[in-house]
């Protein structure tokens, strides 16, 4: 095995020389960014800010997410230490999800991203309209 490579179960191989903005697929930083930048993960983290929610509450609040995708997302966030899953021994079983202290620190960053998006959504919409207009004109010229 190459030096700096881990083959432990449940952990993908990675190199220890990964740096900020390293595009290699096997870098832990990229894998973590892939996870937390996923649209479903962002929504789950945002919804769990300061509260715990049951699976059914999360599913009802996240428009368009399937039961399977929510299950996968919650498991991945739990594995990464961002979400805590608590099972209560009642019938039917009750399961609550909440942010861990680590997940709460991530929420602050997500909130800044959402604030930026809200502040610049009109500019982005205008840029999209301009791009679409140019693409449509190019399509007419190429036809």
Automatic annotation (TrEMBL):
InterPro entries: HTH_HxlR (IPR002577), WH-like_DNA-bd_sf (IPR036388), WH_DNA-bd_sf (IPR036390). It comes from the Bacteria. Keywords: DNA-binding, Transcription, Transcription regulation. Residues 27-125 form the HTH hxlR-type domain. GO terms for molecular function: DNA binding. Residues 1-20 are annotated as: Disordered. Pfam families: HxlR (PF01638). PANTHER family: TRANSCRIPTIONAL REGULATOR, MARR FAMILY (PTHR33204), TRANSCRIPTIONAL REGULATORY PROTEIN (PTHR33204:SF39). This is Transcriptional regulator.
